[in-house]
Amino acid sequence: IYNALLQLCARAGEKNQAETLFAEMKTAGIAPDVVTYTVMMKMYGASKVKQVERLFQALRDAGIQPDKAVYSVLISTFSAARQ
Fold this sequence. Notes:
Strand content: under 5%
Oligomer: single chain
Number of helices: 5
Helix content: over 70%
Number of strands: 0
C-alpha cells in the first residue's frame, strides 16, 4: 500500500507528502523495497542528485539488489543533471 501511495504522491508532485509517507513506513517497521526506492529516486530526479545518491546507497546498505528500473532512474538522473 505504501508503494502505491508513494507513486501517487510522486505523480502529483507532492514531494513533502511522499517524504512523510516514506518516513512513516520506516517508523512502522515496514522495510522499503526496490520499488519504494525506485519511486523515491525517480521523484527526486535531477533536481536532487545528492538525495538520489543517498537513496541508492541506502538501497545497497539494506542488501537490496538494484534492478533495471533503478539503473534506468540513475542514468536519467545523472544525464539530466549534466545538462
